[in-house]
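It would be a great kindness if you could assist me with a short task in structural biology. A protein sequence and the structure tokens that stand for its backbone fold form the material at issue. I should value your view on which stretches of the chain appear to form regular backbone elements. The record follows directly beneath this note.
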Amino acid sequence: MRVPDGRVALGLVAVVAVGIAALVWLQGPIRHGDGGGPLGSYGRPGYEAMKVDSSSGVTTWTYGVRLCREPGTEPVVIESVAPTTSLGTGFRLLGLGVRQFLPTQAHESIISTDGWPPPQSVVPDAIQDVHGFAVTTACNGGAFDPTTELLVGLALTSPDGGGWQGIEVSYTVGWRHRVLVLDHDLLICGASVDCASPGSS
């Protein structure tokens, strides 16, 4: 029996590796909630909703959403960010960004702030593109440990209001594609969003 030489053996390994990668790709990304995969927000399940009101005359806002990596996992690289579903027709997406910073008592994460891009007095850090950003901050960090924050800019375009119901962050870990699904709403008050009742829309 003839034993394959090194080149043939390497070729066989490459073919097997490509086959496995193709099978994984065809199966689609692994979807998980907070605490169920390498990328998280707080590292545990939970619901949050942020509603903003335009009665003061403000029509653009920046929402902040914490992102973190579970300890011991490979590098987490963001591919894209999108809503799970959209509510209403009176809003539009202005932009996405991400920042990594060291919090202090005078320099904290935001829930939301007026304007997009956010004012430097509130977000003085460099805002980076979400596409290809590597999340390295740990989910088990303390209040003043390095923090990564996703920034979403939305604008009011009509009295209907609306916004995002749920957030989906597509990312890769090694060669595996995953999607973090957060039960986190980013909403603008209007006919589609009832701000008189917390937790309703």
User: Anything to note?
Assistant: Residues 6-27 form the longest helix (22 residues). The CA atoms of residues 79 and 171 lie 5 Å apart. Confidence is low (pLDDT under 50) at residues 8-26.
